Each structure stands twice: as C-alpha cells, then as structure tokens.
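Morning!

This is the sequence you dropped in the shared folder:
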Amino acid sequence: MVGVGGVGHMGFWGYLVVGRSDRPLAEEPALSAVRSELTPHQRRPDGWQVWRHPSEPDIGDMGALARAMGSPVLFGFVMGSECVAVEAAAPHSGSWYACLAREPMARHLAPSGLELEELFLPAEDAARRAADWAAEAGGTAEPDTLLDVLSARRPESFAELLFFRLLDGLGIPGVPDLRGVPDPVE
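The structure's back. Tokens below.
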C-alpha cells in the first residue's frame, strides 16, 4: 500500500502515527527502527499523540505496534497532501485499511494497475471497523463523521485535515482551542 504513486510531489509526503501512551510513542520498541525519523506533531488529551515520519523508510507493521502497546494505533500515509492511506490496528479487533480522498488515491494507484477496492475497504465497511476500533480504544465513535470522512471523494484543502477529522470521528479528543484563554500567571 505504501510507496504507490508517481503522481505529483507537492505537499506533505509521509506518515502521521497515532497512539495513546504515557511515554512518547517514539520510545516504543516496535518503532525502534524508525525512531530517529519520528518527530512529535501533536499531543491530545488522554495521552493521545500524533507523530510525523517522512515517507522513507517504511514505518512498519501497525499490528505489531498495537500488540506491543496493548492498545489501538493507526497511521495515515499522506500522499502529497492529496490523499491518505490509513492503516489501523488493535490488539483484539485486528487491522483494517481505508483511504481518505478516493479520487486522488485512484489517480496515485492507476500507474500500478491497482484498484481502490483491492487495497481499501469500502467507506461503509471502513466506518464499521473504525467504530469497533474506537470502542476498543475506549472512545465513542461519531458514525456520521466517520462515514462522511471515509466517503470523501477529494479533500476540501489538504488531506491531512481529513485525517484529523477521522481522529475526531474515532472519538480521539481534539486539541483544546485555547484562543482567548489567558495564560496562567506564573
């Protein structure tokens, strides 16, 4: 699934890795081979973290990471900010694959002769698997948001924003909006 393409090279190419831990995800033994390339991107409430990784080398197996951590994890491979290949894994419910922004993904796959249906679940099936993943992660999925994001033909702006809407739909708490909140006095 990763490494398909040949279409355009604008925008961000790389991974967004998401998991929940009391320690930095980069310290997880299952990520040791790519640790030096991981950079923190976003900390969310309840220990959720988002890390960035360039497109090479391949980040590895999310199933192995989920089993090692004992909790659900996922990554999105962002392709030129046009589309995202999602791999999610959980210790009990297993792995599933979806794509965000189906039209650009189909264009990226075309040179290889692969079809979307060969690699990714249909949006409805992916939304069901995503809801199971969210439940295993201890969250509450937003089914309408999941189906909307997973059915999107193309991103409104950057595919990364679809990925973060997917996280919202999975019940992963968002980054608090602190605009207008005064800084605490030290």
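Headline: The first strand starts at residue 14 and ends at 20.

More detail when I'm at my desk.
O.
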